[in-house]
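Students often ask what a holo structure prediction actually looks like on paper. The answer is less mysterious than it sounds. You provide the chain, you provide the ligand, and the output is a string of discrete structure tokens encoding the 3D arrangement of the protein together with tryptophanyl-5'AMP.
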Amino acid sequence: MKRRVFSGSRPTGRQHLGNYLGAIQNYVNLQDEYACIYCIVDVHALTSLEDTGSLQKNIYDMMLDWLAAGLDPRKSILFVQSRVPEVMELHTLLSMVTPLSWLLRVPTFKEKVKLQPHNVNYGLVGYPVLMTADIVLYKGEVVPVGEDQLPHLELAREIARRFNNLFGQTFPEPEAKLTSFPLVLGLDGKEKMSKQLGNDIELALSPQETIERVMTAVTDPARRYRDDPGHPEICNIYQLQRYFNPLQSDSIAEQCRSANIGCVDCKTLLAEEINSTLGPFRERRAVLATKPQYVAEVLADGAERARVIARETLREVKQKMGLL
Ligand code: TYM
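The corresponding structure tokens follow.
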């Protein structure tokens, strides 16, 4: 039997290069070898979203990106989290075996408190418990994620272990699977690329928009004038060159160090490579965008298939916890 992969993403709308390089690439690559389930976690999104009116559109935009990137509903289950409400029941049950102290020390919780001090809601504290419920409801063994999710995965393993110790072996301890580019920095060159921080490059931009966006990127801060020698190893744009322009990246580094290439030329090269790499993706996306009915059917079918597995696990959990 194939091992099970589970991963989730918040419906933040059109996906960016960070999502793609850190996670979606692996979602697609794992589809043949594993039994994959990929979930759009709309309930998680409520921990930060103030304008819930955009949620349905965000889900749709994200699905267009996933499908255009190569997620195949014949191979993987694709669904929206709230359409399988068993996850919320499991979340409540798991919250009874999760010490509050574990949750308060999670670094992403502390970051969120700083990022949205006006909205430190109860759901934010429980965020990793809901995420654990997502994974173990499907007995997920392998979880493709970016590096920022590792603390959550560690906690998921601890919660699964604790449940197993208390109630008998039930859940596998899920392992994270990183891509070769697990942390993509944003255009500011400081923080991780993120929609919430507004430092992202969306996959679905037009070629011209991509060029304009790349041009706003912060590069090596020590390189103030065109003749200053650069330090590619600390430059965010150079990291992206290594992914999008692997054949030329060594020579670009050399030219940057000797100030033979300026940051504007370097960014232009990068934007061209991003555009040519994403060209086929953008074409597939444009075709899919004409088929909203198809996207809705994929999600409805995915939820039905996910729910069969979810019901079975939840029954087992309730039995073990003495509720049945
Ligand atoms: P989210 O929605 O923030 O991001 C979705 C996926 O994209 C990866 N990612 C990045 N990787 C590299 N560099 C970046 N700048 C970057 N930005 C985003 C994330 O690591 C993630 O893999 N908590 C999760 C959603 C979630 C989940 C789950 C994940 C809910 N339940 C169960 C795995 C399993 C999140 O907020 O991801």
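The first strand starts at residue 4 and ends at 9.
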